[in-house]
Amino acid sequence: MSLPGYLKGDSKLASSPITRDAFQAMQEAALFGEDDVKALRASRPILEPQVDQILDVWYGFVGSKPFLLKQFSHPDSGQPDPEYLGRVRARFGQWILDTADAQYDEDWLRWQFEIGRRHHRVGKNLTDAAVSTALIPFRYLLPLAQPIVQTLRPFLERTGGPTKTVDAMQDAWRKSVLLQVTLWSYPYVIAGDF
User: Fold this and answer.
1) Contacts of 177 (CB under 8 A, 6+ apart)
2) pLDDT value at position 159?
3) Are 8 and 108 within 8 A, CB to CB?
4) pTM beyond 0.85
5) pLDDT at 160 over 80
6) Is 136 exposed, middle or buried (0-12, 13-18, 19+ CB in 10 A)?
7) b/e code 87-120 from CB counts within 10 Å (16+ = b)
8) Nearest to 79 by CA among 131, 126, 128
9) Which DSSP state fits 13?
10) Is residue 58 a contact partner of residue 92, using CB atoms and an 8 Å limit?
11) Contact 36/176 with Cβ under 8 angstroms?
12) Predicted confidence (pLDDT) at residue 1 exceeds the cutoff of 80
């Protein structure tokens, strides 16, 4: 894939400290199973043609909250960096498709670890050579799962499918986002406590 900064499947990525067995236990803890995998995969053809509109909603939300927009802004001027926002937006769009693909292999785990690093001071700004805040504060990682999942519903409903099917897709997204955000939290947790 030629998306700048998108490295899923790149052998140069660090190995994930979370093994597939450990992730499987996390899935069980979240009540995430094969039905959720199927629901996520069923969401892809629905969401793929709507990625730009979904990102408009998400970016509108972030842009309306100065404390969130700050994470994409120059620390001195406080002005958002449009190039940085654009590059992250492209990868965020790919994240939607990756989430809907529901491929929980070693490459996926490594990529989740990298995404976490890019939220934390150990890797934030490096990929895009951005001048911005040193990290995304941990206090925003978990709460942002709610608007992401909640705002997907209208997009999932656009097919006119049964409410039960839409509910299953949204529930699978909720579980998947919770699991991913937990993985992204790894750099924030004291060594040995994850």
Assistant:
1) 99, 145, 148, 149
2) 85
3) yes
4) yes
5) yes
6) buried
7) bbbebbbbbbebbbebebeebbbbbbbbbbbbbb
8) 131
9) S
10) yes
11) yes
12) no
2, pLDDT greater than 80 = no
Query: Letter for the amino acid at 131?
Result: V
Q: Which structure tokens are listed for 14?
A: 């660090």
**Contact call for residues 137 and 36 (beta carbons, < 8 A):** no
φ/ψ of 123, rounded to 5, equals: -145, -5
| Domains of the chain with bracketed CATH | 20-188 (1.10.490.10)
**Going by C-beta distance under 8 Å and a sequence separation of 6 or more, which residues neighbour residue 172?**
32, 35, 36, 37, 39, 40, 43
The reported pLDDT for the residue numbered 100 is 98
Among 141, 108, 105, which residue's Cα sits nearest to residue 124?
A: 141
Quick: pLDDT tens for 75-110.
999 999 999 999 999 999 999 999 999 999 999 999
**Listed range (2-11, 59-68, 137-146, 173-182) with the worst mean pLDDT:** 2-11
Instruction: Report the alpha-carbon distance of residue 70 to residue 63 in Å, rounded.
Output: 9
Count CB atoms within 10 A of the CB of residue 172.
25
pLDDT at 7: 86
What percent of the chain is predicted at pLDDT more than 70?
Answer: 99
